[in-house]
Amino acid sequence: MSKTVLITGAASGFGRGVAFGLAKRGHRVIAGCQIWPQVWELRNAA
Fold it and tell me: Most Cβ neighbours (<10 Å): which of 13, 14, 27, 44?
């Protein structure tokens, strides 16, 4: 069963790891970042 998860602080560290881990397991992840360059980097990594 897939869930939708909101993660704040997903630009680096623990939040980023959790966001990618849950996405790999098939969950829909809404990843929040603080500044625009972090958003760009996260999108490119995804």
Answer: 27
How far is 34 from 27, CA to CA, in rounded Å?
22
Phi-psi region of 35 (alpha: psi -120 to 50; beta: other; left: phi over 0): beta
pTM of the model: 0.84
From residue 32, alpha-carbon distances to 1, 45 in Å are 23, 14
CB 23 within 8 A of CB 3: no
- Considering its fold, how many domains does the chain have in total? 1
Strands 28-31 and 4-7: parallel
Residue with tokens 């704040």, as numbered in its chain? 8
Residue 46 has pLDDT above 90, yes or no: no
Q: Residue 17 is encoded by which pair of tokens? A: 């790891």
